[in-house]
Amino acid sequence: MSDQPPAGPVLRRRGLLAALGAPAVLAGCGFHPLNGPPVEGEGSAAVGSQLAAIRIGPTYSRPGQLLHQSLERRLAARDRSGPAARYLLTTSILPSYEAQGYRRDGSPSRIRIAMSVPWTLATLAVPPQQIATGTARAFDSFNVVDNEFFSSVVSSEAAERRLVDQIAEDITIRLALAFRDIPAA
């Protein structure tokens, strides 16, 4: 057996996608992002403009603030030139913390965080009409480092950020799927 590379060019999948351009390859199979611009010739609503017309209701606590920011990024938060708000997304974040591991002295060594976020999307019309509702859930955990309080705090904050990002992504996908079936206003 020879350790020599095979003669001639070897095409790897990543190289091929980079050479052809991933969007060009994906466009050939009919793929287009849910929150992107509408594809010409399709009768689907412009989901991206509907997502941009969502106002996010008030949220409370640090995880609520992180969720609000993450949702704004994903929903292509409106700027002054964007569409006027037509929808209101209300969320309430319900975190729970559970010790999963213990040291000999009885102090926790690993914490599991479970976040549950019930959400509702309704129109801003009077009376409001409910468009979609659901509950997003995510789980994560982190180690509590012995004698290193700062590291434990950083680990818990990183776990909360990961959870909030997962939940925001889940809510955004569900909203895009709900808008796919209703016409743009």
Concise synopsis of the structure shown:
The chain is of the alpha+beta class. It is built from five helices and five strands, in the order H-H-H-E-H-E-E-E-E-H.
In words, what does this structure look like?
The protein has 185 residues and is α+β, with helices and mostly antiparallel strands. It has a single domain, classed as Double Stranded RNA Binding Domain, CATH 3.30.160. Helix content is 36%, strand content 25%. The chain contains five helices and five strands; from the N terminus they run αααβαββββα. Strands 1, 2, 3, 4 and 5 form a five-stranded mixed β-sheet that branches. The chain is elongated and about 60 Å long. This is LPS assembly lipoprotein LptE.
Cα separation of the termini: 67 Å
Secondary structure tally, helices: 5
- As for the number of domains, it is 1
What summary fits the major beta sheet? 5 strands, mixed
- CATH homologous superfamily heading: Lipoprotein like domain
Under the CATH scheme, the architecture is: 2-Layer Sandwich
Question: What labels describe this entry?
Answer:
lipoprotein, 5-stranded mixed sheet, Double Stranded RNA Binding Domain, LPS_assembly_LptE, LPS assembly lipoprotein LptE, 36% helix, alpha+beta, single chain, 185 residues, elongated
Question: How is the secondary structure organized here?
Answer:
Layout: H1 13-20, H2 22-27, H3 47-52, E1 54-56, H4 61-74, E2 87-91, E3 94-102, E4 108-123, E5 130-143, H5 149-180
Parallel strand pairs: 1-2
Antiparallel strand pairs: 2-4, 3-4, 4-5
Helix pairs in contact: 4-5
Pfam families: LptE
Keywords: Lipoprotein
Protein name: LPS assembly lipoprotein LptE
